[in-house]
Design brief:
about 400 residues; 3-stranded antiparallel beta sheet; binds S-adenosylmethionine; binds iron/sulfur cluster
Length: about 400
């Protein structure tokens, strides 16, 4: 057996609804008026039991559940009865690790921040707030319903309730002044005791309103040089505040890295319930092949397919080459890179395309690790698509 110590298991729960659809977002998120709580509870429960039998069938090695992540959409809008039920039933089906990390993504609106204390009581111990921008003009441009004052109140409440608080920011907007961004970032880090920050440069995703505007010439994006400068300054300020970058867009104070996301990037086992959620695990009886389990994406279809009995859209077993490429693609996002011993076939990195990337100094291969050269992080997506193709 080549793959080392795959004994962690994470659970991702997708809640697909939001108050409104943001013009830049291509996540599986929708606006709805009606939520049949009982139907959702039943469908999530059916999926958890179905996963339990699949984990047995594929003889997946894990000790207990190490993390849960409620993502979306906007899971802070999820009725608390559903949240409570998922936590209860998953603790019965799987054993929770003593120091299990349970994260939830929250919007800063008043309705949601009022629920923080109750969520904490239910066992949520890490909250990630979608602040998105540090001034009102940019929040309006991003089509957000909250203003910066709401965000400040939410961060304040969150840091008084949870030990582990993260915020999401989107930067490098066309009309954003880089010095303003630097000052805003500095002041939020001085003011609040957060310990994790995800800083994403705005990307124009197909199918979004921003994509249509971009195509019509109504929306511009920053050029590559300015984007690189935004990234460098962001990294410098965060480092000055003791936040280290551990993944392309993720920064954390020591010991506050998101364990859940690390489990993805380290190619551990995870299961995903809810519309569009997917799971990946190691098939122990089949020479360490990766199994991918996908859910129906449309919320109504997903609910119909899982209400009586759980039905996944498909279950795909990767061959060993595909498993290695998957491990590489996930691991190369990490600053530390990936240990070569994790690959089934270590000689894969002798392939021409890896040699070329190494020659161009885009990746660094040493005795036991392969990683992206820090100076070329901004090219990560094109490096990864070159590897996949
Ligand atoms: C599922 S959303 C987060 C939860 C919550 N719905 C919210 O928006 O506050 C995950 C994060 O991805 C980031 N994101 C989404 N679309 C993006 C885009 N086109 N460019 C950059 N970041 C994006 C945002 O920072 C967002 O908070
Ligand atoms: S960014 Fe968040 S709130 Fe906005 S549509 Fe996407 S998931 Fe919903």
């Amino acid at each position: 057996m080549t793959n080392k110590k795959k004994n962690l298991l994470s659970l991702y729960v997708h809640w697909p609804y939001c108050e409104s659809k943001c013009p830049y977002c291509d996540f599986n998120s929708h606006v709805t008026e009606d939520v049949d709580k009982d139907a959702w509870i039943k469908s999530y429960t059916n999926q958890l039991y179905e996963y339990k039998s699949l984990l047995d069938k594929f003889d997946v090695k894990f000790d207990n559940l190490s993390t849960i992540f409620f993502g979306g959409g906007t899971p802070s809008l999820m009725p608390v009865e559903i949240l409570d039920h998922i936590l209860n039933i998953s603790s019965k089906i799987f054993k929770f690790k003593d120091d299990i990390e349970i994260s939830l993504e929250a919007n800063p609106s008043s309705y949601e921040r009022e629920k923080f204390k109750y969520m904490h009581k239910l066992g949520i111990n890490r909250i990630s707030i979608g602040v998105q921008s540090l001034n009102d003009k940019n929040l309006q441009f991003l089509g957000r319903k909250h203003n910066y004052r709401d965000a400040e109140t939410a961060i304040d409440l969150a840091t008084n309730t949870f030990n582990n608080v993260s915020i999401d920011l989107i930067y490098a907007l066309y009309e954003q002044n880089i010095d303003d961004w630097q000052n805003e970032l500095q002041s939020v880090l001085n003011k609040f005791n957060i310990n994790h920050l995800s800083a994403y440069q705005l990307t124009i995703e197909k199918g979004t309103r921003f994509f249509k505007d971009f195509k019509k010439g109504l929306l511009k994006t920053v050029d590559n040089d300015l984007a690189a400068e935004f990234f460098t300054r962001t990294k410098t300020i965060l480092n000055e505040h003791n936040f280290q970058r551990y993944e392309i867009s993720n920064f954390a104070k020591e010991k506050f890295e998101s364990e859940h996301n690390l489990n993805y990037w380290n190619s551990e086992n995870w299961i995903g319930i809810g519309p569009g959620a997917y799971g990946r695990m190691w098939y122990s009886n089949q020479d360490n092949k990766r199994v991918e389990i996908k859910n129906y994406k449309n919320p109504k279809t997903w609910l119909n397919k899982n209400y009586q009995n759980s039905e996944f859209e498909n279950i795909n077993i990767f061959n060993q080459y595909e498993s290695d490429i998957d491990t590489l693609i996930m691991g190369l996002r990490l600053r530390k890179g990936i240990e070569i011993e994790k690959l089934n076939n270590k000689s894969i990195i002798q392939e021409t395309k890896f040699k070329e990337l190494e020659k161009e100094k885009l990746i660094i291969i040493d005795n036991d690790k392969i990683k992206i050269n820090d100076d070329h992080l901004i090219k990560l997506d094109s490096i990864l698509s070159y590897i996949i193709n």
